Amino acid sequence: MPIDFRNTNTVWASVLAETLQRLGLTTAVICPGSRSAPLTIAFAQNKKIETIPILDERSASFFALGIAKKSYLPTALICTSGTAVANFYPAIIEARESRIPLLIFTADRPPELRDCHAGQAIDQVKIYGNYPNWQAELAIPSASRGMLDYLRQTIVYAWERSQFPTPGPVHLNIPFRDPLVPIPDIAVEALETEFNPEDFFAGLEPIFAGETSTPPSPPLLRGGEESTMQQWQKCSKGIIIAGVAQPQFAEKYCSAIAKISKSLNWPVLAEGLSPVRNYAQLNPYLISTYDLILRNRELADKLTPEIALQIGDLPTSKELRNWLAKTQLKRYIIDPSHHNFDPLHGQTIHLRTSVEHLATAISPQVPPLSKGGLGGVLTTATTNIPPQVPPLNKGESTQIPPLSKGGLGGVLTSPSNEYLQLWRNTETQVRQTIDQKISPINNIIEPKVSWLLSQILPPATPIFIANSMPVRDVEFFWKPNNLEIKPFVNRGANGIDGTLSTALAVAHRNQSSIMLTGDLTLLHDTNGFLIKNKFVGHLTIILINNNGGGIFEMLPVAKFDPPFEEFFATPQQINFAQLCATYGVEHEIIDDWEQFKQKLSFLPNSGIRVLEVPTDRRADAQWRQDNLSKFAKDL
To answer: Can you list the alpha helix ranges (DSSP code H) found in 265-312?
Structure first.
C-alpha cells in the first residue's frame, strides 16, 4: 500500500509523494530537519523515487537544480522550517531565470505557532517573492477524502505549473501539527479499509513537457501582406545568433538551426555555451570567432547585417552586444517561453515558437536547388550536408576554405552570397590565427585550457562550465568540433552560487563528466563535496587556480589598487590538496599540457577528482589584452 495510514500527517505526506511519483517524479533531494519529518519519511518509503539526503540547504537546492537541468523533469526539494527555507533562494532565482522545473516543499509551523516566538518559525508564505511560477500554502493536513482530493489535485497543478507554459520553480509551503513522527492513530488507521488507491489515483498519468509540445506558428509567420519569412528570404545580409542553450534534444536543435541557416544563406554566430559548436558538421556556415572579429571596427562595419534571428538568450560576448546595440537592426527572437530576451531594448520582435518548429515552417518557403536554379543549398538525401563539405573527423574544426568562382560547399556564388562569404572567410582566417598562436604555447596559461578541451574530451562528455572567466574563455577559444559535447551552465542569474553542487548533479548517474571552474567559484561551494557519499558516477573538476578572481583583472577596476587586490581579486591562499584530502577527494596538480591531455582524453567511471591547473592571474589577463584585439586586426 503506497499510502501510510499511521496518522494524519503520514497519510497527507504519502499521498503527496505517491501523486508526484505517478506524475513522473524520479528524484527528491531532502535536507534534514524535524518539521519536515512527515515528508522525509514519505519520500524515503516510496521505492520508485530516488531520495538523496544533503546536509547543506544551498548545496541541496543547486544539486536539485542540476538534476532537473539534466533530466528536463521537475525535481522535488524538501526542507524544514526557518532559515533553512531561505537558503534555497539563490537556486530558485537561477531556476526561474534559466527556466528549470523545480518543486520546492518547505515544511512550516501551523498558524497558531507563528509570530509567537515558538522557535524556528519565520514568515515563509511567498518568501521567494515573484520568482516561483506559482506558489501557495497548503491547508493543515486532514485525512478526510475531500481534503485528500484537494491535496492530490493541488499537487497535479503544481507539477504542471513547474513546466507550463514556461519551466520554472513552484513553491508549496506545508504546515504540520504534531505528531511529526509516525505515531499510530487508531482513528486514521481505520480509514485504510475504506480507501481504494486505484479509484483515488484513477486517470493520473505522467505529465511532462516533451518534444511533442510544439507551439503553433506565431501570426507573423502565417502570411499576411508579405510573410516574415519571405522578408528574410529576400534579405542578403542576415545573421543567426545561437546563444546559450541546453536543449533536451541537442542534435535536433542544431539541425534546425542549420536548416534555417542553409535555407536563408545566413551565417550562424554560435556561442561556446551552445551545443551548435559541438555539432559542427551540421552547419557549414558556423561562425565561432565573432567576438574577436568584431574587435576589428572596420570589419565590424562591413559585416553590419540588416536582420538578425536570435535563438534564445544572447551570447555572453560584450563585443557582440555592443555591435548589435550600435547597428539598431531588426532582430527576431526565437524562443517558446514568455521571457523577454532583449537586454539591449532594440527593434525586436519576439516570436514565441521553438527553433525546431521554425525550421519546419521555413522549409516550404525555399524551393530546392535545381539545375541552374537559385535560392537553396544542394544537399544529400541522407546527411543534409553539402556534398562538397565532407564530414569532419572527431575533434576536427571547421576550417572552411574561401569561396571561389563557381562556388564551394553547394552554395552558388552571386552578389547575394558576398556577405556570407565575408563571414566565412574571416572565420577561417581568425580561427587559423588563434590555432597558430595557442598551439605552440608550452607554459600553462588559462586560455589554452578551453581551446584544448574542445579537441580532446571523449565524445558526448557533459561539461559544466562555471561563471566568470571560464565562460568567457569558452566563448573566445572553444573550437568547433563534432564531439557532441554537452555544455551545462547556470547562466540564468550568472552567479557562482552552488556551482560544484550543480555539476555533481549533472554527473550523477550520467556519463563521466567535467567541471571547468576557477578557484573562488569552487571555494564558494565546497560543501558540495559533502554529496560525495551519495554521488553515483564520475566528475573531473578542472580547477583553474589563479589565486583570485580572474574576471576582475579584465575590468577597469583592476587599475585601481588599492583596493583592487584585497577587495576585488580577493586571493585566498588555499591549499587545495589539503582541502580535497579533508573530503576524501582525489587531487593532482597539472603542470604540462601532455599530462593534461592524458588525464582528460579518457575519464574514470566513478569518483570525484580535482585536476588543479595553477596559473598566473595577471599574466593571463595581460595575454588576453595583448591578443584578443589582434586576432582579426590585419584582415
So the answer is: 290-293, 297-302
The whole-angstrom separation of Cα 98 and Cα 337 is 11
Tell how far CA 441 is from the center of its chain: 31
Residues 6+ apart with CB under 8 A from 74: 25, 68, 101, 102, 103, 159, 162, 163, 170
Task: Name which of 316, 319, 328, 314 is nearest 296 in CA terms.
Answer: 319
Nearest alpha carbon to residue 72 among 209, 200, 189: 209
Annotate 175-213 with b (16+ C-beta within 10 A) or e (fewer).
bbeebbebeebeebeebeeebeeeebbeebeeebbeeee
Q: List all residues 6 or more positions away from 435 whose beta carbon is below 8 Å from its beta carbon.
A: 397, 479
- 319-325 contact pairs (CB < 8 A, 24+): 319/290, 319/291, 319/294, 319/295, 320/241, 320/269, 320/290, 320/291, 320/294, 323/294
- For 519-544, the pLDDT digits (tens) are 999 999 999 999 999 999 999 999 99
What is the maximum span of the chain, computed from C-alpha positions, in angstroms?
89
Separation of alpha carbons 201 and 83, rounded Å: 35
Three-state secondary structure readout of 37-62? HHHHHHHHHCCCCEEEECCCHHHHHH
pLDDT-based confidence at residue 342 (cuts at 50, 70, 90): very high
Number of CB atoms found within 10 A of residue 117's CB: 7
d(CA 126, CA 543): 38
Say which residues have a Cβ less than 8 Å from residue 250's Cβ, sequence separation at least 6: 275, 278, 279, 484, 486
- Record the cell numbers describing residue 582, joined without a space: 579533508
Question: Is residue 369's pLDDT more than 50?
Answer: no
- The Cα-based distances of 5 to 20, 42, 180, 192, 453 in angstroms read 18, 11, 14, 6, 54
The set of cell numbers assigned to 136 is 501557495
Kindly tell me if the per-residue pLDDT of 246 is higher than 70. yes
The CA distance from 490 to 477, in Å, is: 20
Query: Do the Cβ atoms of 88 and 64 come closer than 8 Å?
Result: no
pLDDT of residue 218: 73
Radius of gyration, CA atoms only, the chain: 27
Cα–Cα dist 507/536, whole Å? 8
Question: What is the number of residues in the chain?
Answer: 635
**Amino acid 543: pLDDT:** 98
Which cell goes with 601? 582524453
